[in-house]
Write a structure and sequence with these properties.
The complex is a heterodimer of chains A (598) and B (246). Chain A has 5 domains: 2-104, 3-Layer(aba) Sandwich (Glutaredoxin); 127-335, 3-Layer(aba) Sandwich (Rossmann fold); 346-429, Ubiquitin-like (UB roll); 434-522, de novo design (two linked rop proteins) (Up-down Bundle), CATH 1.20.1440.230; 535-593, Alpha-Beta Plaits (2-Layer Sandwich). Chain A has 598 residues and is an alpha/beta fold. The relative contact order of chain A is 0.08. Chain B is built from 7 helices and 11 strands. A 5-stranded mixed β-sheet of chain B has the order 2-1-5-3-4, with helices on both faces. A 4-stranded antiparallel β-sheet of chain B has the order 8-9-10-11. In chain B, strands 6-7 form a two-stranded antiparallel ribbon. In chain B, a hairpin with a 2-residue loop joins strand 9 and strand 10. In chain B, helix 2 runs antiparallel to helix 3. The chains are: A alpha/beta (598), B alpha+beta (246). Chain A binds chain B through residues 276, 278, 293, 297-298, 300-301, 445-455, 457-462, 464-466, 476, 478-479, 482, 485-486, 488-489, 492-495, and chain B through 41-46, 48, 59-61, 64-66, 79, 82-83, 86-87, 90-91, 93-94, 113, 115-117, 125-126, 128, 143-144, 146-151.
């Protein structure tokens, strides 16, 4: 009998010591005469990082969470040798029951994995493992097809770019294919830089060959012989795994001088990003690959016509490319059965923020925000009221509670002023200040704007100054109109998509949470109790039970009172407004008030 | 092909930049980062206009907008005036000491925006024209440094450049006279470096810096120039007169 131990070695689990766990399994299982033959594999990210390290035992289909080295002995003894689960390491579902299989886990059960199909199942460092799971079959098929046939499959699939803009991939490939200028290039955009997003990192780390296969299929279709993967340098493991995968694919004759023994060639290489968010913009990325400063150019002529070194270039996002082998293998029509009318297939989201279960989730396009946040995510942490979800990264927007039943696809959110973007999804509860959220994103963008064009560079500087003023109690009533005026100019007159979409965080918060801005400006009060200059925490004596949790949490030692059932009192003159007391209180007794009268 | 600019029919070639076509037809469009000798970058955004190719009007910057199909263009519509005014107003906050920007703000009715704090000092609008001139015509001694709100134009590490030849091309193309270039009888100082000036051996007019003349000579494979253009012409005329005299 043989068993497989899959130890998650994605970045999150690695940080929690999964490498040592894998080592412990190998050590315990090697060299002894167990009746069970066992393979230990270090896989990519399973997406449920907050519960890592994850260990899955096959064929028993048992998944353990938060496994530490000291648990390994027990797992070997009970599960691997005797087939029985270690109850305490199983996931506890919402009803409090321990579940064995991932399919019983409410985080995984509603998901449908297409782009993430292999991640967690295969060893990213093994091309053999990828091929054992059907890898490079699509490339083999593509070699028997003409470019026209390949592009037709892509068009039939309805696949749209997963980087955020949602441009139809088939259309892009066709433009490049029909140009009779050589050389042509394929490129992969792995410069994922949205705060809180890690979809592409996970794919590059956990299943690098799927991206290489997608690029190779594209290269066959458009007749390119060279390609680049632009990966942000902070993604050390992704860079390493992709480089290793290219070397393996070349050594096995899959890529390189003769793609799978044919007379077609493809040379792929990794370009490490220079650490600028703007390099995720296509023309800035290409400038950076060429060795120039990562600044966008006006895209009146598309980069597919004038891309790398002014040659025809197809640039696709990591997740887009990971979908390509599936489309080729099963046909575009089959892929198009998933998703909505205009957004086909699945989408990977990084579900983070104030949500009970955070992680990487993949669902068919058109799933509602409610499904993502409440069914998969388990709802808001601490059962607090949901306030907003920020989608699409810094260029996205904040969507309020009454839109939770909107389907998530390329077009619906755009119509509401937000965007699905590359898949970042940050959940916020009633203790998130929407003015502060807007300020945070504008600060991020003002630092990450390339600074080439006037509206983006100067407009963001002034927007940040105004938003900071509002958060610190210096806001003026005319500020909101001025902010909207600046938003208009950025949208209309900026050079690239970064500047044109930069107003979104401000626009959507102004549209859906205008009352919060007004409370800051007119009443000098931050309703969420976040902006320290406008907040005073007060303990409601009717709610306080005198447990003293706030006192123990207070780093400044300014909460007085003692004894059970005696309400505590905060000395507001010495309070640093950190909010630790409010976090610590289980009775909602700590209330945020304005600083008026202090 | 024909396009319509402000109601006037203009003939142009496919791929020609909109700005060139407009100017050729006597239709003024303001620019700052544009220089006829250098490739356009579309960074200052002052030359923005409204173009309708049949799918509704959109804002484009005319200096780098290649005409692909028949279209109608408005260079002075309400939307153009509003956005151009805002761009100029933002540039005035960036370069409060620039008289040219102040003048353009008056001319195009830019809003005052008193709520916004101007940058401390300066005339530089960060258009990058100087860096392009230096890279393409001279030695690439300056470049844009940093990004976003911290962007500036500088020599590497803000130290006097080891490659700068003091040609002054950067100061020459700067639309807002933001690059200080000072000269004494014998020297020129720019970007924190002082150069020896060479004068015409005949009339004494300034020819340029020694390094600049050496670079030019090296590029043409000749000895450095010693005469100014006028004296060189006069000398050549004298030689011709001596040979073919009478």
């Amino acid at each position: 009998m043989s068993k497989t131990v899959l130890v998650c070695c994605g970045t999150g689990c690695l940080a929690n010591g999964s490498k040592k766990v894998a080592g412990a399994f190998r050590q315990l299982l090697a060299g002894t005469d167990h009746q069970v033959e066992c393979v230990v594999k270090e896989t990519g990210c399973n997406g449920f990082c907050e519960n890592g390290p994850l260990v899955q035992i096959l064929p028993d289909d048992i998944t353990y969470y938060k496994v530490q080295v000291q648990d390994v002995g027990e797992i070997v003894e009970k599960t691997i040798l005797a087939g029985a689960p270690v109850e305490r390491l199983l996931y506890k579902n919402d009803a409090g029951q321990r579940v064995r299989s991932q399919q019983e886990n409410p985080f995984y059960a509603p998901q449908m994995k297409v782009a993430l199909r292999n991640i967690g199942k295969i060893e990213p460092s093994s091309v053999e493992d990828y091929m054992a799971h059907g890898g490079y079959r699509a490339l083999k098929k593509a070699l028997t097809m003409t470019g026209e046939e390949i592009v037709r499959e892509l068009e039939a699939s309805g696949l749209r770019g997963r980087g955020g803009a949602g441009f139809p991939t088939g259309t892009k490939w066709r433009s490049a294919m029909e140009l009779e200028r050589f050389p042509k290039y394929v490129a992969c955009n792995g410069d994922e830089g949205d705060p809180g997003a890690f979809m592409d990192r996970s794919i590059l780390e956990g299943d690098p060959h799927s991206v290489l296969e997608g690029m190779a299929i594209c290269a066959l279709a458009i007749r390119a012989e060279e390609g680049f993967l632009y990966i942000r340098d902070e993604y050390g493991l992704a860079v390493h795994n992709v480089q290793e995968a290219i070397a393996q694919a070349e050594a096995r004759g899959i890529l390189g001088e003769h793609i799978l023994g044919s007379d077609r060639r493809l040379k792929l290489s990794v370009v490490r990003g220079g650490g600028a968010f703007v390099c995720g913009e296509s023309t800035a990325l290409m400038a950076s690959v060429e060795g120039r400063v990562g600044e966008p150019r006006a895209k009146y002529i598309r980069s597919v016509q004038r891309g790398l070194w002014d040659c025809p270039t197809v640039l696709n996002n990591v997740e887009t490319l990971a979908n390509v082998p599936v489309i080729l293998e099963h046909g575009g029509a089959e892929f198009a059965k998933l998703g909505t009318e205009r957004s086909k297939g699945t989408k990977v989201f990084a579900l983070v923020g104030k949500v009970k279960r955070t992680g990487l989730v993949e669902v068919p396009m058109g799933a509602t925000l409610r499904h993502l946040i409440y069914d998969i995510g388990g709802g808001v942490k601490g059962n607090r009221p949901f306030k907003a979800v920020q989608t699409g990264g810094p260029s996205g927007g904040c969507i309020p509670a009454d839109m939770l039943d909107l389907p998530v696809d390329f077009d619906t959110l755009k119509a509401r002023g937000a965007m699905m973007g590359s898949g970042g999804m940050i959940v916020m509860d009633d203790r998130s200040c929407m003015v502060e959220v807007a300020r945070y994103y504008i600060k991020f963008l003002s630092e990450e704007s390339c600074g080439k064009c006037t509206p983006c560079r100067e407009g963001l500087r002034h927007m940040l100054a105004i938003l900071t003023d509002i958060c610190e109690g210096r806001g003026q009533e005319s500020d909101l109109e001025l902010l909207e005026q600046l938003c208009d100019t950025l949208e209309d007159a900026s050079l690239c998509a970064l500047g044109k979409s930069a107003p979104n965080p401000v626009r959507t918060t102004l549209k859906y949470f205008r009352d919060e801005y007004e409370a800051h400006i007119k009443e000098h009060r931050c309703p969420a109790g976040v902006c320290t200059a406008l907040t005073r925490f007060v303990i409601n004596p009717d709610k306080c039970v005198g447990c003293g949790a706030c006192q123990r949490a207070c780093p400044a030692g300014v909460i007085s009172g003692s004894g059970k059932k005696v309400p505590r009192v905060i000395d507001n003159t010495r309070c640093i407004v950190c909010g630790s007391c409010r976090e610590a209180c289980r009775f909602d007794a700590v209330e945020a008030k304005g600083r008026a009268g202090l | 092909m024909n396009i319509t600019i402000n109601g006037k029919t203009c003939t142009c070639e496919k791929g020609e930049f909109l700005l060139e076509v407009a100017r050729r037809n006597g239709i003024p469009i303001p620019t700052l980062c544009h220089h006829p000798a250098l490739a356009g970058q579309g960074s200052c955004r002052v030359c923005l206009v409204e173009v309708d190719e049949g799918r509704g009007p959109k804002i484009v910057v005319s200096c780098v907008y290649p005409i692909q199909r028949e279209c109608t263009v408005e260079t002075d519509s309400e939307r153009v005036r509003r956005e151009r005014g805002m761009v100029l107003a933002l540039l005035r906050k960036r370069a409060p000491e620039s008289r040219r920007i102040a003048g353009m703000c008056r001319l195009y009715g830019a809003p005052e925006l008193p709520r916004l704090t101007p940058a401390d000092t300066g005339k530089c609008i960060l258009c990058g024209l100087c860096t392009r001139a230096c890279t393409e015509l001279s030695v690439g001694a300056i470049s844009t440094v940093n990004r976003g709100v911290l962007k500036e134009i500088a020599t590497p590490y803000h130290e006097p450049s080891t490659v700068c030849v003091g040609c002054g091309a950067c100061a020459n193309v700067c639309p807002t006279e933001a690059i200080p270039l000072t000269e004494t009888a014998e020297t020129r100082t720019i970007w924190g470096k002082t150069f020896q000036l060479v004068r015409c051996a005949s009339c004494g007019r300034i020819l340029g810096t020694r390094e600049e003349l050496e670079l030019a000579a090296k590029r043409c494979g000749q000895e450095p120039e010693t005469l100014c253009e006028r004296c060189r012409k006069a000398a050549t005329a004298q030689i011709l007169a001596d040979v073919y005299g009478d």
